[in-house]
Amino acid sequence: MARLRIGIVGATGYTGAELLRLLVGHADVELAVVTSRSGEGQPVAALFPWLRGHSQIQYCAPDSATLAKCDLVFFATPNGTAMHQAPALLKAGVRIVDLSADFRLRDPTAWKNWHGQEHACPELLARAVYGLPERNRDQIRKAELVANPGCYPTAISLGLLPFLKADVVDASGVIADAKSGVSGAGRKAEIGLLFSEAGESFKAYSASGHRHLPEIRQLLDEAAGHAVALTFVPHLVPMVRGIHATLYFRLKRKVDPHALLADFYSGEPFVDIMPAGAHPETRSVRGSNMCRIAIHQPQLSDQVVVLSVIDNLVKGGAGQAVQNMNLMFGLPEDRGLSTAALAP
Amino acid sequence: MARLRIGIVGATGYTGAELLRLLVGHADVELAVVTSRSGEGQPVAALFPWLRGHSQIQYCAPDSATLAKCDLVFFATPNGTAMHQAPALLKAGVRIVDLSADFRLRDPTAWKNWHGQEHACPELLARAVYGLPERNRDQIRKAELVANPGCYPTAISLGLLPFLKADVVDASGVIADAKSGVSGAGRKAEIGLLFSEAGESFKAYSASGHRHLPEIRQLLDEAAGHAVALTFVPHLVPMVRGIHATLYFRLKRKVDPHALLADFYSGEPFVDIMPAGAHPETRSVRGSNMCRIAIHQPQLSDQVVVLSVIDNLVKGGAGQAVQNMNLMFGLPEDRGLSTAALAP
Amino acid sequence: MARLRIGIVGATGYTGAELLRLLVGHADVELAVVTSRSGEGQPVAALFPWLRGHSQIQYCAPDSATLAKCDLVFFATPNGTAMHQAPALLKAGVRIVDLSADFRLRDPTAWKNWHGQEHACPELLARAVYGLPERNRDQIRKAELVANPGCYPTAISLGLLPFLKADVVDASGVIADAKSGVSGAGRKAEIGLLFSEAGESFKAYSASGHRHLPEIRQLLDEAAGHAVALTFVPHLVPMVRGIHATLYFRLKRKVDPHALLADFYSGEPFVDIMPAGAHPETRSVRGSNMCRIAIHQPQLSDQVVVLSVIDNLVKGGAGQAVQNMNLMFGLPEDRGLSTAALAP
Amino acid sequence: MARLRIGIVGATGYTGAELLRLLVGHADVELAVVTSRSGEGQPVAALFPWLRGHSQIQYCAPDSATLAKCDLVFFATPNGTAMHQAPALLKAGVRIVDLSADFRLRDPTAWKNWHGQEHACPELLARAVYGLPERNRDQIRKAELVANPGCYPTAISLGLLPFLKADVVDASGVIADAKSGVSGAGRKAEIGLLFSEAGESFKAYSASGHRHLPEIRQLLDEAAGHAVALTFVPHLVPMVRGIHATLYFRLKRKVDPHALLADFYSGEPFVDIMPAGAHPETRSVRGSNMCRIAIHQPQLSDQVVVLSVIDNLVKGGAGQAVQNMNLMFGLPEDRGLSTAALAP
Q1: What is the ipTM of this complex?
Q2: I need a labelling partner for C41 at 20 to 30 A (CA). Which of A166, A197, C268, D322 fits?
Q3: Strand residue runs (E) in chain D
Q4: Do C286 and B54 touch (CB under 8 A)?
Q5: pLDDT digits (tens, 9 = 90+) for D43-96
Q6: CB contact under 8 A, B239 and A244
């Protein structure tokens, strides 16, 4: 089979860099075009020296004609960009995986409320497939436009979906206390993200409402078939990579939660249910596309605690995007994603 | 006034080192005796070079005669040590602040269950005053034996007490998702505490039951006047100092939680209620005895989120011990504890 | 004695924040005016929450009339600011400690070469006293304008001065391999200073010429009485605070270097010569004004290795500025600077 | 070709874990036996959860019969172990790559001096090939016993060899100021390696003589053909992985050092010479077998500064061991070592 011609729009952030890292090691892919206005003419390896020797490709200016010759284009752009360029590319027959939030919400009104602008192509929202393979594998295979999930939504929903689908969750109060490494905030020159600000410290942020909240709600509500009263508080951890979601809910009927989890994810290549008593560490998935989950019932009561870890840039971003690409083109789902995590 | 003659038993761990740091800067204190079997004959500044130039005192072997000449002895020993030495010292008229868990639980059966041995002097449990000044200031003033609170219990209870005392908490489900820097685990040569294990990673631990749980339960139940269904999950943060407790509960009646908090702690020297919308960082209390608290009601519902930060070694350990000592001897409560936190 | 009326110009960076932290705990100082264009009207504690409860002062717009009523004004501004405001303040009788590089070089041509602009008041360069008390204590006492040393120059020169003054250094090749925490680069929104860039990594920077180089050269050459061939390579360490200088030179005649060091700094309040075989850690001076120095002669040859650590924001910045202020006003030199370092 | 049957002795440390990580992804290898007394019967993935799903192998007790059936055995044991087991295995026709220091020095007296015991099989020292492929590629291909280089020696020698071989170095004074992440010290329960000790701090150690010194000396002296006066000072960096060597020497004749380097390493798969002005970051080689080198001539003088970075566990340990194995069995040299580094 000819190698897939792949384009990346906006590959100067961490998600874009991670896409590059994964794709230079993917046997079925040819990196055809990587665009960036700011980086035009520069080798990607000049910006990300760890790619030296792995790719000689240079950034070019965004150009729809070039992108239109790709089999698939990844958008690794800030929110509000992909929605302007997707319609033309789709018309040209190019399939799209959008890593931004542009196509994650079905409801254009909700989108506008959280992003402060009208959605540019609301008619595409219904066509977009939410790219969580553990939930939507079959639709992803046929999708032209995949909305790649956010990092928090991935970690949280993988921990909760089995229980919501099985209808064993007391939906009157679900708590998602989530912790993220600093790379989750992106490669942006902001004071709050400086080493001297985020180092040797820990804090919550956006406790009164984070922009990932409506995406998580949509996911949980759809899985449950009814509204779930979710409280979501994100925190910033002094580490580069990793998300740890600690999820609290009550069982509304007796069930073996570990068996339920293990059964739900049986055969899934990228979800690992740990044995009873385990506590997954974020480093155990660093650089890998795995989600590791453990479960506790602190005092054998109906209170369940689920611990779910991912690498925010891999399963929470670029890795899941590659997994979606593999599905869309009939490749083995783990192609390019099979290396073990890097630890210690 | 003559300076207080102070002894420290077991000052080779982090809590002991922090006591030394605070006491060498305390105007009313003379460090009379610092014991350690392993360090005997060595200057404390050899073990902790940051004390060079601040104290020339040397470790001596534990000796009850020397300790008996002190006005007050701090125990900074592992659990199970103070309970053997306290009775004789109390008999000799020496007042005690125990930083271990030996005297924190009132119930000797609970103590035995969690510590795996019989308590050596159960009769003292009732005489011991739990050293949380914001709750027991008057008893502490007169106490002969103060059980200095644990770090998690301090951070958690300071965030919950005002609401429990006001009887506005739905006690059927309170969640304490707590995060601690690695120094909270002590200065112990354990693989899991190595830089290469705890660095660049995040995990929960003891999710099915942490040894601080009964202490927190006792605190909350007593404040509420009835049982509170608490779920407590501690996590390890790749930083040295700091605890962040994220506390979730529901209001059982309408109340302004920010006003209630501010009112409860009005005049307290070491609790700072932050303005609405704030997110306290652990570094904002690093090296200081302050507890900073903020409150959120994510969707203006009855769900309350309290964010509470302390330095585990100061307000969660040595600083609170000094605060207790100040109270016990009629000194200004903030003597030796008034420096600002060290940040960035 | 009335408390000194102190002004700070530009207190929104790390050096300014550290000045605030030290001065709110200084018994002889009244913080009279703190200026910042960007922060005007805001309490300093809103920007730096660790100052909550320690100062209620607000930033005001820079205003020469207000500053002119101060006894001393600190400039914690970017390079190129103090030189425009200093002349008028000096004329008004206000003494100045400038923490920027504006008055550190005696030669206006060198200044221009390294800073890319003409010096605004070259005539003041000769009047400025270089504020390294261990070298210029007497001149500092009488100075109207003190050029507070840079962080690298402080750590490096304190390790080399005794040997250069004693004329025992082979000046044909001195190596200063220096390592700094990230706060040394300031509170600037730059990609390279992000946690996700500087974390879990180590690198050299400006290996071909750092802006502190001429200042270090001037210091060393003056101490030696002749040119010293210095190679200076700075590195960035994934920590917030601290500088470690590793200094390599050869003895041109036999001498006991440890004795020489200890003798030179005998009686100095802020230089601690460690015993033979020691390796100072940067954390042993964190938050303190101390410089800790150790010395090694790896194979008992004429090759000497000096290890010198400071906190870049204290002895390498705000602390040394306060030490200079104390000297200028006849206060005890360690007033406000006597707390032990914060470790671990 | 049948897959190579590989054994690992002592795979419970970081080097062993890294060997496991690399070998589970190596297409030509079958992990036949992994020994550990302490871990006997336990799956390796229980100790290193990031291997879950990548290998089901369990630790077994060291057993020479089983090991004797391997094609190659790696020793990832503490110093002083391999020398006792190597002779029998070699006799059985098993090839060996020893990652400890047992076979690195040619001189048994030097070995005894630095390791405090007699060497158990001094006759093998001459047969052992020093496994630095950039120096000894051909001998490695035919070797039965490879002494895998230490991490510091690898980073330092790769930066110096080209200049020493070209005889352009003033050998009267070469300085190697090296900095290592904490994993370089191994997975040992030692106080000094705790997160709370090594975090947020920086220090030199073993400044008067590190156990890697004789190995580095032997390497440099052999390359130069005469004695090189080396001063080597290692430092501990608050990060998990990475070594940065900053190397200082003087040219004894005019030469273009960048061209010399680039020429020397032309065609080398695992040495990357960066463009002029660059500063390699340790993270740019994290998890990869690459050594990145840059060169500076600070003031265009004869003083040269070489910056050399490796991942201490990969090119400085397990990766180089796999590279050696590939050479020994005629596999492509980069087999199993071609993934890009993991950054950020």
Answers
A1: 0.97
A2: A197
A3: 4-9, 29-35, 59-60, 72-75, 95-98, 129-130, 145-147, 174-181, 203-204, 230-237, 243-250, 271-273, 291-296, 303-310
A4: no
A5: 999 999 999 999 999 999 988 899 999 999 999 999 999 999 999 999 999 999
A6: no
